[in-house]
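Researcher: Sequence recovery benchmark, item below. Answer with residues only.
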């Protein structure tokens, strides 16, 4: 028996307390729930859930019985440390356990620890647990190509040589180059190879231009076939061809200025190909509307990442780490989750959403909002109606709306030095006066000066 323990006990996500061995079955369930959440924990018999020591009668046979129950009812097998321990001069039974082969089952069912409760997993939750546990082995980009679907003869050596040069590696042979890039496993080519180097890559990019702000009328459509690097370039070219290009002077030289930052667009396009779900047969889509450009990729955010977390930046949960590493080698993506801050810096009004298994990045077209604002000003001049007297803050808010029609109230508050509550008061007042009008949906709508 171990020496007397005086540390205060209380139930948590890794500690379970039971008054007596009559609760042995529930104790085994708690062990499984803790293992599936934290891989290790403690179970005490002879201690009430409030931490009060009640003690129990136990001997060496008790230890054997508990050990046999664990062996009979928990799968996969675990080998906990079981001992008698003194607490408050009373005998208790202490089990410390660990395991790294989740999911674990007690009496044929899987459980998960939530605070100090044990919840039975649904079939979907169990599937997600298994996928999360084995996500490295189940990654599409890291899996070997199906037998007979791709060989070295089906690869374009010129593409491999060009990539090796961009990655600043030494060239000797296609086989050694693929090994240096971790694109072969046990002599077999991995799925990522076909995206970059196959003579006939299985990729397609679908692009369209629409006549208005919805998809009712298509005025241009084009599908592109190629490898992943070619399609990144085609996506950029298609967008540039179908949006407005302005200019500025840099000294004596003219510099083209697209209405959407190409640095932001390029990062979003690369992300669409890099992080998409390649098990989904759909394609990456580029949709050019009158008021926005959308980049759509199959597969939502990965591994529980939320849009809010993603927008905060410095977070990188990658569905296809091998593909991401190949892009990083040729300096096409930022490391350490810096891609999102780059997009937000260059296109602060970008909107992200997930719909029907698609992840969508939407960039506003400044030309549309400038046209709308100009038409509004022209109408106001023509009608010569009385204009309400505006305060300095109201004038400043209207100026912001004139520059950025889809600006959020949070951004208004940040730029005007007001609270969001103060901004809501001003926008409500201006709408009642007929100065402002809100059009479109709550998230995708915009302001109009009336």
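Model:
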């Amino acid at each position: 028996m171990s020496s007397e323990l005086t540390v205060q006990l209380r139930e948590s996500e890794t500690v379970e307390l039971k008054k007596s061995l009559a609760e042995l079955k529930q104790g085994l369930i708690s062990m499984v729930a803790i293992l599936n959440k934290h891989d290790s924990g403690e179970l005490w018999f002879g201690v009430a859930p409030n931490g009060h020591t009640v003690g129990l009668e136990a001997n060496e046979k008790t230890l054997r019985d508990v050990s046999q129950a664990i062996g009979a009812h928990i799968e996969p097998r675990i080998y906990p440390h079981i001992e008698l321990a003194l607490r408050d001069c009373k005998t208790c039974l202490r089990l410390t356990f660990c395991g790294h082969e989740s999911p674990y089952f007690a009496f044929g069912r899987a459980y998960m620890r939530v605070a100090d409760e044990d919840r039975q997993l649904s079939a979907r939750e169990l599937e997600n647990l298994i996928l999360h546990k084995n996500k490295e082995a189940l990654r599409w980009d890291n899996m070997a190509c199906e037998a007979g679907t791709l060989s070295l003869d089906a690869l374009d050596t010129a593409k491999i040589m060009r990539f090796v040069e961009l990655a600043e590696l030494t060239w000797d042979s296609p086989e050694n180059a693929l090994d240096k890039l971790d694109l072969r496993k046990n002599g077999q080519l991995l799925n990522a190879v076909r995206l970059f180097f196959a003579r006939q890559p299985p990729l397609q990019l679908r692009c369209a231009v629409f006549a208005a702000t919805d998809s009712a009328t298509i005025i241009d459509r084009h599908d592109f076939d190629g490898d992943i690097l070619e399609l990144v370039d085609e996506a950029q070219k298609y967008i540039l061809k179908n949006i407005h290009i302005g200019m500025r002077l840099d000294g004596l030289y003219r510099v083209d200025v697209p209405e959407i930052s190409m640095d932001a667009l390029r990062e979003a396009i690369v992300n669409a190909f890099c992080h998409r779900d390649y098990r989904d047969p759909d394609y990456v889509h580029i949709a050019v509307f009158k008021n926005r450009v959308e980049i759509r990729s199959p597969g939502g955010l990965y591994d529980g990442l939320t849009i809010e977390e993603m927008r905060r930046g410095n977070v990188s949960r990658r569905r296809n780490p091998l593909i991401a590493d190949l892009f990083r080698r040729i300096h096409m993506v930022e490391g350490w989750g810096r891609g999102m801050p780059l997009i937000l810096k260059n296109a602060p009004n970008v909107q992200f959403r997930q719909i029907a298994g698609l992840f969508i990045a939407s960039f506003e077209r400044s030309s549309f909002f400038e046209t709308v604002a100009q038409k509004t000003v022209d109408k106001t001049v023509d009608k010569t109606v009385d204009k309400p007297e505006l305060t300095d803050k109201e004038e400043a808010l209207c100026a912001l709306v004139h520059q950025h029609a889809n600006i959020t109230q949070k951004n208004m508050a940040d730029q005007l030095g007001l609270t969001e509550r103060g901004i809501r008061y001003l926008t409500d007042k201006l709408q009642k006066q007929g100065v402002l009008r809100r059009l479109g949906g709550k998230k995708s709508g915009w302001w109009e000066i009336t």
